[in-house]
Amino acid sequence: MLISVIIPHLNQPEYLSKVLAALSSQRGFQGRFEIIVVDNGSNEMPIAICDGWPETQLLQELSPGPGHARNLGIKTARGEILAFIDADCVAHEKWLSSIENAFQDPEISVIGGDVRVPFEDPSRPTLLESYERIYAYRNRDYIASGYSGTGNLAMRRPAFDRVGPFGGIEIAEDRDWGRRARALGVETHYVPEMIVYHPARKSFLEMQKKWDRHIAHDFSDVVTPAKQARWIVRSFAVCLSPIGEIPRILFSDRVKGAKQRMLALFCLLRIRIYRFRKMLAVLWSGDGRLMSGAWNRK
Description:
Elements: E1 2-9, H1 13-24, E2 32-39, H2 47-51, E3 56-60, H3 66-76, E4 81-85, E5 90-91, H4 95-102, E6 110-116, H5 127-135, H6 139-144, E7 152-156, H7 157-163, H8 173-183, E8 188-197, H9 204-219, H10 225-240, H11 242-251, H12 257-285, H13 289-292
Parallel strand pairs: 1-2, 1-4, 2-3, 6-8
Antiparallel strand pairs: 4-7, 5-8, 6-7
């Protein structure tokens, strides 16, 4: 079994070095793999970094968006299994073996795994780390709703060929692809042993940009007065939702102690208020495209 690991990259050379190092240190994997890094318009191509890993091929896709980068990687890939990880993630040492084992079942065509947020210093948890350990990258929930995040996704090539390419930057390409797959009867299966680690965001501004993109994507379908009315109701529900999230924060096994839980709650309040304000603002402007932006261009 040949697994083609495809990594979209944009201005994250330090993270890219880490993900390539992790992929070179996999354990328990019996097959073969290749790595395809697709740069999406970085200030500087990561040529030196990729040259340090013999099994790595570097491509360039200038159309903005990780979906376009992944599509180019797929065109070049030789593997019967296509695996996707983001440049700022680190694969667990048994990530490839978990993918290999899952596809021993011929009935499985698409899989997604767990995404965890580590503490840089567990003795000094940050606001965003505490929040994102609970709320970010809930891939099991995403898969239950019909899609996996593309930061931890793998599929057989015939499944990709049947569903078609990833969409562009104007949509949430992972959600779009997964739901198109489900509509065709191609189910995504959750594999808990398939683990990647994603760092928490460093600033609240990064979190704002993330929600700007999501709000813009969701608003693209708000085209009738009835949908606009539902959008208003939804925005107020977002504002009030932290009340219902208190039990999740109190009993989550992804944070420990009163300090981490209080940090998570405070960050949740701040984010939900921001989302509420932005949802009303985009409705008032009537144009979510202004918020979509480039996927993480600097």
